[in-house]
Amino acid sequence: MSDPLRPRASLRTAVVWEVLKDALERRVKTAGRDVLDVLDTGGGTGNFAVPVARLGHRVTVVDPSPNALFALERRAAEAGVADRVRAVQGDAHGLFDVVERGGYDTVLCHGVLEYVDDPAEGVRNAVDALRPAGTLSLLAAGLGGAVLARALAGHFTEARHALTDPAGRWGEGDPVPRRFTADQLTDLVSATGLQVGAVHGVRVFADLVPGVLVDTEPGAMEALLKLEAAAAEQPAFHSVATQLHVLAERD
Q1: Which H or E run contains 137?
Q2: By Cβ atoms counted within 10 A, which residue in 47, 48, 62, 248 is the most buried?
Q3: Is residue 171 part of a domain?
């Protein structure tokens, strides 16, 4: 996934970025500080961390891949925010071996729960990293989007398998270990005591529309971005989104 601020990549990231940016602005007002401490678990090469740092915040990125962290540092340097981005090798399971418990105003947990052995533990650790009145941004693979994609590709047996599989996988060749429904994600968050503020469907249409159409038709990308933003807030579309985003806050 590319930088949320690059136009083509924004089809995949725009909804989450706008929600996150608004949440950070609210947190600045409530915290009474212009600079927030943000933790990005599984942040990889800095798809969100670098844009967050561009807003002036301090970002700690925890990721198990040294190659991803090297790319993150290079990306941060190129963006002129190297002094605000810290790369730390680690994972969600051993999060507090490498970062401070209760030390962050906002925690991003994007693309992590699909891969951890215990999603509930992953959410608990992310929440435990928050300061009082902190904000959690959670992004995970959606079950319905995978079912729809397999069906539209003509793989009907795989689509049905994903519907009945406990992990939401369509078969042994599925590269995603686990998928979630909106209810499953909100239950995981609510179990930690956080209040769920909003749920958004992400990439409702972007993965289904032919790229050549978006790239060649005048105004198509802008129109699709607006459609994604409008559909993201509609619960009816959560069940067919490729990803699901949950924003929650600690009272």
Answers
A1: strand 130-141
A2: 248
A3: no
pLDDT tens digit sequence for 200-231: 999 998 888 777 777 777 888 888 889 999 99
Domain that holds residue 14: 5-141+180-206+223-249
Which class for 66: exposed (0-12), middle (13-18), buried (19 or more C-beta within 10 A)?
A: exposed
Is the pLDDT at 3 greater than 50, yes or no?
A: no
Going by C-alpha positions, the residue among 63, 26, 74, 12 that lies closest to residue 249 is 26
How many whole angstroms separate alpha carbon 33 and alpha carbon 80? Answer: 22
Bridge partners, residue 115, by sequence = none
Residue whose token pair is 């994972």: 91
CA-based angle 214:78:113, to the nearest 5? 65
Number of domains in the chain: 1
